[in-house]
Amino acid sequence: MTRPITAGVDGSEESLAALGWAAREAVRRGLALRVVHAWRFQSHEAIDAGDPDIQVQWVREGLAEAARSVTERHPGLEVTTDVIDDGSVDTLVAAGADAEMLVLGSRGQAAVVGFLLGSVGQQVIAGAKSPVVLVRAGDQAAAEAAGREIVVGQHGDADDSAAALRFAFETAAARGATLRAVRAWTLPPLFAYSPASLKLLDEAGGLEPYEKKSLGEALRPWRERFPDVPVVEHVEMGSAGQVLLSVVGRAQLMVVGRRARRTAVGARIGSVAHGVLHHAPCPVAVVPPV
Fold first, then answer.
1. Structural domain of residue 124, as residue ranges?
2. Contact predicate 272/156, CB 8 Å
3. pLDDT 10s digits, 25-42
4. Which of 84, 105, 139 is the last residue of a domain?
């Protein structure tokens, strides 16, 4: 059974941009679109909406209008709507669990708006079982024009980035886009040199050739699986976040892996994902490990 693309909508400009992005991606991939609003009743003395039934009716009407705007642009797209009567992190994570991806709006500084505020948004990204795509207000189909690439970060060995590479290749194939695979490297401290590592470096011809070889090996199975996707291999010395952001001007989508961990102050998604979400003007997909 194929899974839909799920878009979270709250009526904000950012979430409507995310809805448009999700609809276009669903059409490209031949998938259905599920539009959800995670709602929790809030009383407010300044407005006459103390009745939960009134508020939820407003939510349903707004969601229906958003869905109509999508079906008018994409008549053949299957669209369903769902109001989730719970705004908790677990409920939002569950909304994307059965989806190919969860698409949300984001505002500046990577602050996810509406029902995802501050640390809640980070916790949803950290706990999601499927890729989470963050889309900024103003994002339009023109940003996906020919010549703009799908950029993906690759690190470690082939298994470490397998999920991010798969998502990036699938997206590039659906869009007929070039994929730029970026691997950043830095000089290791002297104590990291062991006889085994020195042997590997010597066989590769040095640090940079070793990094290029590692990237090529990680890409090989995906290039074989998606032979029609043009690939640019980009190896550069520097921090991963800085190197990825240096090529963001070419990107219609940036794809990064997630390194979620739990701390005393909540979930953390990794410095590279956090930095790219903070600064990249294009949509960003954060992909959980396999």
1. 5-139
2. no
3. 999 999 999 999 876 655
4. 139
